[in-house]
Predict the structure of Manganese/iron superoxide dismutase C-terminal domain-containing protein.
Amino acid sequence: MITRRLARQASAFSQSTPWTCPSCTRAIAAPSRTTIASSPSRFLSTTRPLFLRDVPKLAHQDRFTTDGIPGLLSPGGFKIAWLDYQRLMVEKLNDLTAGEPFENSQTKDLVLRFARDPLAASLFNHASMAHNNNFFFSGLSTSPLRLDAVPNVKESLIDTFGSIETLKATMLDTASAMFGPGFVWLVWARDLNNPTSGQAGRHGAWRILSTYLAGTPYPEAGYRQQGLDTNTSNASEYKGYMNQQPANAVGSFGPFSTSAQKQSKLPPGGTNIMPVLCVNTWEHVWLRDYGIHGKRAFLSDWWNCIDWSVVEGNTPGEAKGQNTWVRA
């Protein structure tokens, strides 16, 4: 995205006087004020934002700020990972959207809107990171509800993974093996091919999904899911990833997926991927409290701090065996 601004205001130009660009050696004709006023800007504004986002307040933020997240982060660690970092994302978003028609849009809406716009890479990255980071911290609590207290979710997870220990090991191993920052998600994948199938009325299954850097889990965002670790992949592997046809359930999140083509089967506003839980593997989250070798310890502590009441609230009805309407 172009971020450079003119060093002189439009009022300083004169139609009769050429202006020499400080970084050039040639003189260029000064544009008229009418031309300048009518030229559309692209995510640039010299005015203060009309709408100012602020860091959303977490349900237990006051306690987190004074005492840290029990069993996971110290007050200093929480300050870096949430208060400072999230403010950085929000302030950057305010600058990037200032004066634009979408300046008051929610972060997820910005993610979906600009995922396919290569000129909006910076806007997408900051919006997606703000959304992902908020999703991660929203799943934590001072007194987290245990999974046994939400038997409908626990039973559904066992239907897919066989046991909770398998889910835990797979999710933590995936996050630990990530070479570089990102997020690991637990998502409910709706079965759009056969929406009336499934155990106990569940029309889909649980999946573990990795997104690197500021990638998003939402399939509506297309290729900005960033589902491949480019740090450990060569050019041919990347090309194959971009061109692959889905061969199994894990690959069904790609840009050529059958489920994406059948999105119209869902009710208006619906999606075939529903994230319910994620863990943030960015180093600034865990490095202060756990040290250079502490990633695995951080992940193990995170699992014990999950508030499963939040996960249950994020879980769609059909994943819990409840009847829901799906357009045929």
